[in-house]
């Protein structure tokens, strides 16, 4: 790959992850991984300035500014980002350069809070507008109503200056974050990955009551603009803000030399884990405001400040045990249980060990001191074993040769690292099979939670997936025993089960749990067959004629239907009235017959699911990848590598409006 191709590739990757971070509050990678990609892009563009484009991530500040139901506000003062540095040498180079260029400068070293940036505007001492960073240059989202319910936001100043605009970081304390996730778990809702995501999502809520309940906080770190009063230094401004009751960044330190700055950075790094909130680095600023004016800004960052970013957080802890669990296919998964540690804002005590090969490669043993980190600042993973701290007499761990649930033998599958329980009637497999069957991606039976599944299996009401539809026979028993709750809850679940009988056949196929046959594959298969019964009597050759189905998936289907027990379950499902047939899908025309579309990016008017249904209902096919066989690429905002590939292959790219017009 040449440099130009690599630049384009990195741009697309960064655009994708920028959207996940800024607009969806749901990052997939760590800040460190993102920063390293950005550094690589900067280096490549430095070598090839002719390849720098206006839409490059290096030429913009933040994400886009979007909020359903919200209002966009124009920035009076740009909310720029900071130049990031990662090494001691870079800190020294910056500080010494400032000392050379300025007359005896003073530096202010502050915490870099890991949150969401927001500015507050006051007119005649009254808070009028609160706005997020948005794109950092032109506009951000109006979050005034939500800002007013944040306890740290001052609504009226003591000194009624004509105009004040201040910028701060909205964050969530670790205590508040833990409390919210406890509530989310109790309510059966998705828990938040880290405090930063939770704070960002909370500030963007359309209901300010939710914002108030979640208890987010705010630190102010800069005066953007002020009229009616003047300050000579940044810290002088801080002191005035404090008198107004405004909470500014804690424990900031003034320094004169690079050695002093680095000493403060090290001190903050050591105390990082003891703070009540997350910080991801340290900011070094010029204190004198006239010096700041003299230095000015680039199009993206101020020249009077830099941010030193800490490396990814990792901690040592003691491995207490290795537990093994059995999945719905019988696969046995080992999980490390260790003394709880706090990483990236959450308390963690477990990490998946994947398989025996992973354990052997790490040479991990119970009692070892291990190093744990978070992949993408979300998923706990074990990095290494501190072998010099290993206790004498420790033994290698081996996944047991018998299933921990049913006692049946376990075997290692040929040419894989997977060890499986060979008993198809193992209760653990049944449990996960039923959870898969009733889940959202399969039969989507609302309210059928895993706790109900486990209890109904334990009491032998459910022994296979067909038994789900026999539960109405035991309504009185279920109500009397309170397994699902009283009459109202029980009837609600039974109604949902009854309603699911009319689901599309592809949902049933997904729910059967055939290896390698997920939602997408099931959809392709049921376009080719009239019913599940037809599928039972197919051949490998016919299956391989189905788009997206190869030999391995085909063999999995044949093996499933060769099992008489599975055929019996299918027969019982049919007797209970579960839909087996594909409905006659007719459309007014077949305008897209023979055409293959790829949908990528964020669609703002019709949505990706609706676009897919629209294309398929008119005879078209929607694929997940771009190839020479692709007819059109439907591209929304922040379209990534698929758009680039389409352009390279000369495939026509269309918008949502053009798609709709094609059908008129």
Automatic annotation (TrEMBL):
Binding site for Zn(2+): 403, 406, 421, 426
Active-site feature positions: 112
Domain BRCT: 587-664
EC number annotated for this UniProt entry: 6.5.1.2
GO aspect biological process, one term: DNA replication
Pfam families listed in its UniProt record: BRCT, DNA_ligase_aden, DNA_ligase_ZBD, HHH_2, Nlig-Ia, OB_DNA_ligase
Cofactor(s) listed: Mg(2+); Mn(2+)
A GO cellular component annotation in the UniProt record: cytosol
Keywords: DNA damage, DNA repair, DNA replication, Ligase, Magnesium, Manganese, Metal-binding, NAD, Zinc
Residues given in the record as NAD(+) binding sites: 31-35, 81-82, 110, 133, 169, 285, 309
Catalytic activity from the UniProt record: NAD(+) + (deoxyribonucleotide)n-3'-hydroxyl + 5'-phospho-(deoxyribonucleotide)m = (deoxyribonucleotide)n+m + AMP + beta-nicotinamide D-nucleotide
One Gene Ontology molecular-function label: DNA ligase (NAD+) activity
InterPro entries: BRCT_dom, BRCT_dom_sf, DisA/LigA_HHH, DNA_ligase, DNA_ligase_CS, DNAligase_adenylation, DNAligase_N, NA-bd_OB-fold
Top-level taxon of origin: Bacteria
PROSITE patterns: BRCT, DNA_LIGASE_N2
UniProt function note: DNA ligase that catalyzes the formation of phosphodiester linkages between 5'-phosphoryl and 3'-hydroxyl groups in double-stranded DNA using NAD as a coenzyme and as the energy source for the reaction. It is essential for DNA replication and repair of damaged DNA.
Family note: Belongs to the NAD-dependent DNA ligase family. LigA subfamily.
HAMAP family named among the record's database cross-references: DNA_ligase_A
Protein known as: DNA ligase
Organism: Clostridium estertheticum subsp. estertheticum
Gene: ligA
């Amino acid at each position: 790959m040449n440099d130009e191709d690599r630049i384009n590739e990195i741009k697309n990757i960064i655009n994708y992850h920028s959207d996940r971070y800024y607009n969806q509050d749901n990052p997939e990678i760590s800040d460190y991984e993102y920063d390293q990609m950005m550094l690589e892009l900067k280096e490549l563009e430095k070598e090839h300035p002719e390849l720098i484009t206006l839409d490059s991530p290096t030429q913009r500040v933040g994400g886009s500014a979007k909020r359903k139901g919200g209002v966009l506000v124009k920035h009076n003062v740009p909310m720029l980002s900071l130049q990031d540095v990662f090494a001691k040498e870079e800190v020294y180079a910056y500080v010494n350069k400032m000392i050379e260029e300025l007359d005896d400068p003073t530096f202010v070293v502050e915490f870099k809070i890991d949150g969401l940036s927001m500015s507050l505007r006051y007119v005649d001492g009254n808070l009028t507008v609160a706005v997020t960073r948005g794109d950092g240059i032109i506009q951000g989202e109006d979050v005034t109503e939500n800002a007013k319910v944040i306890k740290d936001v001052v609504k009226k100043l003591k000194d009624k200056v004509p105009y004040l605009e201040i910028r701060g970081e909205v964050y969530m304390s670790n205590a508040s974050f833990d409390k919210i996730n406890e509530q989310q778990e109790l309510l059966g809702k998705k828990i938040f990955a880290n405090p930063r995501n939770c704070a960002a999502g909370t500030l963007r809520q359309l209901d300010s009551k939710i914002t108030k309940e979640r208890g987010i906080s705010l630190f102010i770190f800069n005066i953007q603009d002020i009229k009616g009063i003047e300050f000579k230094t940044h810290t002088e401004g801080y002191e005035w803000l404090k008198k107004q009751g405004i909470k500014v960044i804690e424990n900031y330190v003034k320094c004169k030399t690079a050695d002093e700055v680095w000493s403060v950075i090290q001190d903050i790094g050591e105390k990082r884990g003891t703070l009540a909130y997350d910080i991801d680095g340290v900011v070094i600023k010029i204190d004198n405001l006239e010096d700041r004016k003299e230095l000015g800004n680039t199009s993206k960052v101020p020249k009077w400040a830099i941010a030193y970013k800490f490396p990814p957080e990792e901690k040592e802890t003691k491995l207490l045990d290795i537990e093994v669990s059995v999945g719905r296919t019988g696969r046995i998964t080992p999980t490390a249980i260790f003394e709880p540690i706090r990483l990236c804002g959450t308390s963690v005590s477990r990490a998946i060990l994947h398989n025996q090969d992973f354990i052997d490669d790490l040479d991990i043993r119970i009692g070892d001191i291990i190093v744990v980190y978070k992949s993408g600042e979300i998923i706990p993973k074990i990095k290494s074993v501190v072998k010099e701290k290993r206790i004498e007499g420790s033994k290698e761990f081996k996944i047991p040769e018998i299933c921990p649930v049913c006692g049946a033998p376990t075997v290692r599958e040929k040419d894989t690292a997977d060890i499986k329980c060979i008993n198809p009637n193992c209760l653990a497999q049944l449990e996960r099979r039923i959870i898969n069957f009733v889940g959202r991606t399969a039969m989507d039976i609302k309210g059928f939670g895993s706790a109900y599944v486990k209890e109904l299996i334990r009491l032998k009401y459910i022994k296979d997936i067909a038994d789900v539809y026999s539960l109405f026979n035991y309504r009185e028993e279920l109500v009397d025993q309170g397994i699902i709750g009283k009459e109202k809850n029980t009837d609600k679940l039974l109604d949902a089960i009854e309603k699911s009988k009319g689901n599309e056949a592809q949902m049933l196929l997904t729910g059967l749990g055939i290896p390698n046959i997920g939602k997408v594959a099931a959809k392709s298969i049921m376009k080719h067959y009239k019913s599940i019964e037809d599928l039972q009597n197919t051949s490998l050759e016919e299956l391989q004629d189905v788009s997206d189905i190869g030999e391995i998936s085909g063999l999995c289907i044949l093996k499933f239907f060769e099992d008489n027990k599975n055929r019996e379950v299918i027969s019982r499902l049919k007797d209970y009235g579960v839909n087996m047939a594909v409905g006659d899908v007719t459309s007014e025309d077949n305008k897209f017959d023979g055409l293959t579309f790829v949908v990528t990016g964020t669609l703002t008017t019709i949505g990706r699911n609706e676009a897919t249904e629209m294309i398929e209902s008119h005879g078209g096919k929607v694929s997940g990848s771009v190839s020479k066989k692709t007819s059109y690429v439907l591209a929304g905002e922040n379209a990534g590598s698929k758009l680039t590939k389409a352009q390279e292959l000369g495939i026509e790219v269309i918008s949502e409006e053009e798609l709709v017009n094609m059908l008129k």
